[in-house]
Predict the structure.
Amino acid sequence: MTKYTVHHATNWSRSLIAAVSLAVLALAPAASGQDEPLMDGMGNLNTDVLNADSPAAALYRERCAECHDNPVGRVPPRASLRYRPAEGVYQALLAGGTMSPMAEGLTDDEIKSLVKLLTGREPAKIKDPIADRCASTPPPVVVRDGDWTSTHGDLQGHRFRKVPTLNAGSVNRLQLQWAYAYPGSAAGPVTVAGNTLFLAGTGYVVALSADSGCVRWAYPTNGRIVRAVTVAAVSGVDTQEGALPASVVLFGDDSGTVSALDASSGDKLWQSNVESHMQARITAAPTVYNGVVYVPISSMEDPLTHDSNYFCCSARGGVAAVALHTGELLWKQQHITAPLALLKPAPQEGTATDGAAPDFGHGGPQFRQGPAGASTYTPLTIDTWRGLVYASTAEEYGFTHLPGPYSVIAYDLKNGERAWQRSLLPDTAQRKRICSERETDCRNFFSMGTSVLVHPLSADKDVLVVGTKSGMVHALDPDHDGRVLWSTRVSDGGDLGGVMYALAADAEKIYVPISDVDSPTGRYTGSLLALDPASGAIVWRTPPPEPACNWDSSRRCIAGQVAALTVVSDTVFASFWDGYVRVYATGDGRQLTEIDTARQYQAVNGSASGGQVSGYPVTVVDDALYITSGASSIVKPGNALLVYTLDGE
Ligand code: HEC
């Protein structure tokens, strides 16, 4: 069978399964084939959604099966939806949800019937967090030194804290102090400021007292998806507008809108729509510097690159800068500047594609425009010395059959002028070869998986380090337009990484989490590396851990790291898809301890369940660790915030 020229869904999914079953990942096959196995990839009986004789099953066949029964890239396999909270699936189908275009025109009852079909139950009402409100009003939120106020805990992306009491000698004494159940499902990391925790999940952005977990305030997101929150201290900024409180909470949502709330009360200060494209979204939290809020722009057009009826694509990643005091747009840049043009229609079945990007397995859109894509899904980092903001980007969507032009772009903090851009994609021939070997749709394989890490080599020399989904780590020279200083292959790479979310660093080394959950060999899956920042040489690498999922998934248990690292003193906290957080020594990579988060917890506000640990899960302030379990998960989502401290403290 010739790869990439077969547009019949069942054949495609079989070739995909042939590829992935070599690895540990077993996906649900299309349920319509004659040689269909009795069990799907999740170990469930194929109680055939496709052939079931109900209105909900008909809706599924009509609107969902094309993608969710032929899962490639980020599409969650149908069977995996069963492991999602019904509320999350419901939310995804409602206005503003990721899948809302697919549910357009359906009634609420029809949507609920689909949710029940896929998850086995109707969505519960998301719990109103205000029921657990603090008995007395806590003091106003004032940002303190050492607070973890943004996704990375700093502007440069180090994800590092030195905590005198918390180190290689004491991590095995960490004890769970309390847990909190997100009102819906967990969406992203906890940020911490002024003894208050800020979290985003289905339904609400919530502020909790760091001492007891009582609710300071809860802000309803009204169906919008918010994944992470940034806290900005306002003092020290020119306050000509006067009225701002001491600290402000900022977040973006899936309508391309940034919101600012008073961090103490949760009252709305302003909202600013920075991107009006129908499919635009803000996936990562903003970065605040010097009174300006820098916002990464991405889109949810990605799933529609598989949709034959969608005129794809026109959404473009970029960066917007808005005033912290007013939300006024100061500047905005799209990463792709070429004008949108009509592109060649989808190739007919059986015809070879002519360009670098192979065509999609099941056809893709009939009518196409571009170039588009180059989303920025990860937080922006700031180079205060050079006055630049760095964005790492995903690929162009690929209908142009040209490799995406950008990987890392530097914009001037003040006016948004592009200082330089650097492509880290392989040349056309190499790309074509790699993509056909890997049977990926090659739309995302060479995307940047991490934020840019700004790392000092010496007093006057920095390197910019970035990890890719294709399994590379590159270092760029910020003083020479991002010239590549070194490149190190660290893993096989894959549509889910390779290297995902964020690296971490201390003064001596760069730490690299390996996902490789869909690698054909599995030889590096879940390993952790330390690299020398000056040369890129591998200092050590840990062996892949034995997957240990504490849930009923006999076959699809993968201990890849689809998550950012956090370095605490001389230890690295790494997070895994088998539900574990494993802790390693920075010196030699030996494992010090591990925490199984995929459990049921008696939380301060009821019952919480842990799941896969994904995204940006671990934050630390003083000697308290905050772990979000179950966010951004595919197989086993959860809703647990876990607070760990050393015993006896
Ligand atoms: C054209 C392809 C396509 C179709 C059709 C489609 N989906 Fe999806 N779906 C995707 C992709 C891709 C993702 C992953 C999106 C992402 O990661 O941003 C996804 C994600 C989801 C998710 C998870 C959302 C989340 O919050 O992470 C749910 C639930 C879902 N789909 C349900 C459905 C249902 C129900 C239907 C039918 C009404 C449907 N999808 C139709 C491609 C599709």
